[in-house]
Design brief:
Elements (H helix, E strand, L loop, with lengths): L2 H4 L13 H15 L3 H8 L4 H5 L3 H23 L7 H36 L1
Helix pairs in contact: 2-6, 3-6, 5-6
Length: 124
């Protein structure tokens, strides 16, 4: 049987439903991202210096997001390879930490941009 015969055929332009994993774990990661506390959760997930954890600047947030993105990529790779060291709880923890950091950075970024525009408008 060829690969095309085994694939499910759908109409062009039809949208897929959410994957079963996204339906099951999506609400759980959203709830845990809302309860995310950087000083409590990050040391369990990533090897970081205390100064990296305490850095609340937008640049520090982007630095942590890059580290979390890298760790998520490695964890997904382990999951796909069915590696013995893959840990679903670590994967979910990394995902909720990533979403929590992303949300906190999104809240900080508009304030920083607003302050910059106020300072710039006063100069002209």
């Amino acid at each position: 049987m060829s690969g095309e015969d085994r694939r499910s055929h759908r109409r062009p332009g039809a949208t897929r439903g959410a994957s079963p994993a996204k339906r099951v774990f999506g609400p759980m990661t959203a709830a845990s991202a809302a309860a995310y506390v950087r000083s409590r959760d990050l040391p369990r997930l990533l090897p970081l210096w205390p100064s990296e954890i305490e850095d609340r600047t937008p640049a520090g947030g982007r630095h942590l997001l890059a580290k979390l993105r890298r760790a998520l990529r490695c964890e997904r790779r382990r999951a796909r390879a069915n590696h013995w060291s893959y840990d679903l709880n670590r994967h979910l923890g990394l995902l909720s930490a990533y979403k929590g950091e992303l949300a906190s950075l999104a809240l900080e970024e508009p304030e920083a941009q607003l302050n910059c525009t106020r300072r710039d408008s006063g100069k002209s």
